[in-house]
Backbone:
């Protein structure tokens, strides 16, 4: 009974007007919470001690690690939306994975750039062809390919279905990224926060890192909902333009 | 299915020698490398397997965008979509035909290019064997890209952009298996087995994905 209720709630969102109403109610709270967490996280990040070896550069990690997590989570959200498009034909799922692609590309780019900035003083080089770095770079290229495919097609619903297929096939890359540091023993350090047997990093660094991770996740959801809303508005505007043009044609 | 296979093979052999152009492109890419890195034979023999693999990868992608596009233009794609055979099998057959006509010649041509690259016999054999096992995966991955971009008028470049990132694992294990055959400490079999596994994995995923995309790309 509760399950069917959840399903009806979810399919209620298929009506864009309901989604817009919900978004209008949630967005102020979500963005306020995001701003608050960022304030706390940034304060923690700059007030805690630097590492005895890395010094102040360890603070780059508070941006690098959350964005890297998000670059993978965003792809997973897109894959879920892609399933929603292909299996349930949920109209919002189309919009959702289209809106998430540029966000994912942006987070991946931030992760790559901050990692590179950290790598220069620590590893002594901007870039190495390490397993993790290479696979994240491949992820970045895939985001750009999906965006390019979306832009290349005129019909939005067909573009959404076709790119959903591509997203699902490209999902193969996500486990490769996650386990690349375990399979190939390379320069990038293995996972130290989410692992069996508890985190191996000190609480001093863990606290700001977790706050920043939650803040970045909320930032992603805020931006994602805003992007979905904008896309719905954009489609409405183009539909109304088309109707106006048709009316003008009939009158003239 | 056999009829479709034969038809595709005949078309690709008779229509202007598409296979020959692929081989020609492959040879040109490999021949350009010594101009870039210099004619040092030791260096060439060291990077040879990687160069031959990259050349084969690029050449295999060359004809992919035409995999479904000619069918779409003359309308036979709709017939293929509507007939009672499962579409996945049709796509698999088309991939096999494409591989036989366009990629197998590349595999056959690779020993010659290995000689150009000053590789020894073992390395040449290893590259040929890994290409034989690994290149079907390239075709299967490419089929997804070709199906996704089938309605685009100028899909060729986009197909390459979409497909190349997914081909990276094939390249990694193909090249590492070829190197393992030459260099002593690394065992040959594990990367070779993984390469075979990747091919089999994409032999399932590729046609399924391509069939899904073709159904959705219809007008």
Residues:
């Amino acid at each position: 009974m509760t399950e069917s209720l959840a399903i009806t709630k979810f399919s209620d969102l298929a009506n864009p007007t309901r989604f817009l109403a919900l978004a209008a109610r949630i967005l102020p709270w979500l963005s306020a919470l995001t701003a608050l967490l960022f304030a706390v996280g940034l304060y923690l990040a700059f007030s805690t001690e630097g590492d005895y070896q890395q010094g102040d550069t360890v603070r780059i990690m508070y941006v690098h690690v959350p964005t890297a997590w998000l670059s993978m989570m965003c792809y997973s959200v897109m894959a879920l939306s892609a399933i929603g498009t292909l299996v349930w034909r949920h109209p919002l799922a189309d919009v959702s994975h289209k809106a998430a692609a540029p966000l994912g590309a942006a987070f991946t780019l931030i992760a790559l750039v901050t990692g590179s900035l950290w790598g220069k003083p620590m590893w002594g080089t901007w870039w190495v062809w390490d397993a993790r770095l290479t696979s994240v770079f491949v992820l970045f290229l895939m985001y750009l390919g999906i965006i390019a495919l979306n832009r290349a097609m005129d019909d939005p619903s067909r573009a959404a279905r076709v790119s959903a297929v591509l997203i699902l096939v490209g999902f193969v890359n996500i486990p490769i990224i996650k386990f690349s540091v375990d399979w190939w023993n390379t320069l990038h350090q293995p996972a130290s926060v989410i692992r069996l047997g508890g985190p191996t990093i000190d609480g001093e660094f863990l606290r700001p890192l977790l706050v920043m991770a939650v803040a970045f996740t909320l930032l992603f959801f805020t931006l994602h909902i805003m992007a979905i809303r904008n896309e719905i508005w954009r489609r409405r505007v183009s539909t109304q333009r088309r109707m106006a043009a048709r009316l003008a044609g009939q009158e003239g | 299915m056999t009829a479709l296979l034969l038809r595709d093979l005949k078309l690709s052999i008779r229509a202007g020698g598409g296979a020959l152009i692929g081989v020609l492109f492959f040879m040109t890419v490999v021949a350009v490398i010594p101009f870039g890195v210099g004619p040092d034979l030791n260096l060439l023999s060291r990077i040879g397997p990687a160069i031959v693999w990259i050349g084969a990868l690029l050449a295999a992608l060359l004809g992919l965008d035409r995999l479904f596009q000619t069918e779409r233009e003359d309308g036979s794609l709709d017939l293929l979509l509507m007939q009672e055979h499962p579409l996945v099998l049709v796509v698999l057959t088309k991939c096999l035909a494409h591989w036989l006509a366009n990629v197998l010649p590349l595999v056959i041509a690779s020993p010659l290019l290995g000689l150009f690259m000053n590789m020894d016999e073992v390395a040449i054999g290893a590259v040929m064997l890994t290409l034989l096992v690994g290149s079907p995966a390239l075709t299967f991955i490419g089929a997804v890209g070709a199906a996704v971009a089938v309605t685009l008028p100028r899909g060729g470049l986009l197909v390459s952009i979409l497909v190349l990132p997914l081909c990276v694992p094939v390249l990694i294990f193909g090249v590492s298996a070829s190197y393992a055959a030459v260099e002593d400490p690394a065992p040959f079999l594990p990367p070779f087995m993984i390469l075979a596994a990747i091919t089999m994995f994409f032999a399932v995923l590729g046609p399924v994905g391509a069939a899904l995309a073709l159904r959705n790309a219809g007008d």
